[in-house]
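Good day; I would like, with your permission, to put a structural problem before you. A protein sequence and the structure tokens that stand for its backbone fold form the material at issue. Thank you for your consideration; the sequence and its tokens are set out here:
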Amino acid sequence: MRILIVDDDPLAGELTLAVLEEAGHSCHLAEHGLEALERLSEDASFELVVSDLHMPLLDGLELFQELRERGLEQPFVLLTGDDPAPLLERAPGLYACLAKDGSLEQHLSALLDQL
């Protein structure tokens, strides 16, 4: 699966990238939401977007909403250090919202198995 990872924290982005590539996925990393919008506008062949919530310029929820307004319907997974439950309520259509904690690798892998 082709996955676009969006995270302004280089360490967190690389960690997510490593987990997903180890699971056999082809991943690309964008440093912020505006870069992700540009990439997806140029190449809509990404099958999944995995984005951090808190980023400068365009946060993860704003990125999700902008993609939907542009008609891009890839499943979207939001990663956050906050409580994920209220975020799912704020963004109908969000595929999943996962906590950035010690169980992220396990939960992300299980989620991708469902796709």
The domain at 2-113 is CATH 3.40.50.2300 (Rossmann fold). The chain has a mean pLDDT of 91.
